Amino acid sequence: MPDSAPLRLAQRVTSLKPSPTLTINAKAKHLKAQGVDLANLSAGEPDFDTPEHIKEAAVKAIRDGFTKYTPVGGIPELKEAVIARLAEDYAVTYRPEQILVSTGGKQALYNIAQALLDPGDEVIIPVPYWVSYPPIVELAGGVPRYLETRAEAGFDIDPAALEALVGPRTRAIILNSPSNPTGCVYSRATLAAVARVAAAHGLVVISDDIYDRIRFDGRPPENILSVAPDLADRVVLVNGVSKTYAMTGWRIGYMAGPEALVKAATRVQGQSTSNPNSIAQMAALAALTGPQECVDRMTAAFRERRDFITRRLNALPGVTCPEPMGAFYAFADLSAYHGARAGDRAIGDSLAMTDYLLDEARIASVPGVAFGDDRFVRFSYASDLATLEAALARLEAALGRLTRG
Ligand SMILES: *Cc1c(COP(=O)(O)O)cnc(C)c1O
């Protein structure tokens, strides 16, 4: 029989794009492998190696034959370690039934959306946002509702604007502090204001705390439960070991929240991926319960780089970069160069800018449009200072070659 009908894919994937950050990172790694001297400032991962004691725990797990299925939601020791960490960081008490360990914080978020949303349900996402929030919501049939913020106001949430966005179908809001891409950290006043709106309208708060221990003001981790502990029955915390312990490849994240939601998310996971990798769970256990100096050391390095890159970016003509308070990204407004040209090349938007920087400055960066704000470009500073210094010199030269008109 002749094969005439073209392969038809499901509607839900026809508009699904690959993660722009993962795509650019892959392209940068490919160019580097070909010998191109490139500063890869596109990566959403620490440049440090996973600490030795964590690797050893994984090697031991393999040697001990800890290589079989575990309970879907994670091994009890790891859940207890998560509970202990959350108790220490946020003074909250969880039971094991309220914890789900997943294949990365990303799968935790995916499971939450699947467990929470019916078609047409709305989720409020502050802009700029992490690239994966909108597709995760949409794959569950949900509808993102974007909450605009202002760079001049530190990308802070305006409670009145939030309230105005809430409608009858609004189910949840996603918070991410410290933020990828802006590095902004919500003040306690902002968190309290969001808590009041969430309580008044029965919203679930999805608190993505993946960068909670990478902050530069010396303060301990903070999230909405730090200011509104009474909201615990409608807050789900998402966290993981990827960023804090330089373990992005190991794929361990977790959620903590209301038991009904966590149980539903566990059923979703049980019918999709089952348990997260058994060996990586042992490594994550060592990360959470072992010495924490590695976290302080990496955070101190990020802080030094933050100081360097924000100073250099803000010294460039026409560039403004709000000072990041956490995570490891500088989010710089380069829109003063939109409309400029280099030869017959026109810079019209953030994507054209990052293409130009890749070709002409050998810097891989991520266009702000991927995060919902086309004026900006995200530079990761999870690279050593020497790489950053060389990259910033090339950036300055490349911007200097752009001409108006
Ligand atoms: C990296 C990241 C995650 C999840 O990372 P995993 O590796 O899946 O744990 C979640 N949210 C934000 C904002 C991130 O940057």
TrEMBL record:
GO molecular function: pyridoxal phosphate binding; transaminase activity
Entry-linked Gene3D superfamilies: Aspartate Aminotransferase, domain 1, Type I PLP-dependent aspartate aminotransferase-like (Major domain)
Record-linked InterPro entries: Aminotransferase_I/II_large, AspAT/PAT-like, NHTrfase_class1_PyrdxlP-BS, PyrdxlP-dep_Trfase, PyrdxlP-dep_Trfase_major, PyrdxlP-dep_Trfase_small
Enzyme class: transferase
E.C. code: 2.6.1.-
Alphabetical GO biological process terms: amino acid metabolic process
Positions of the Aminotransferase class I/classII large domain: 37-395
Alphabetized CDD domains for the sequence: AAT_like
Cofactor: pyridoxal 5'-phosphate
Keyword tags: Aminotransferase, Pyridoxal phosphate, Transferase
Superkingdom, natural source: Bacteria
Pfam families, alphabetized: Aminotran_1_2
Family: Belongs to the class-I pyridoxal-phosphate-dependent aminotransferase family.
Protein name in the entry: Aminotransferase
Organism per entry: Dissulfurirhabdus thermomarina
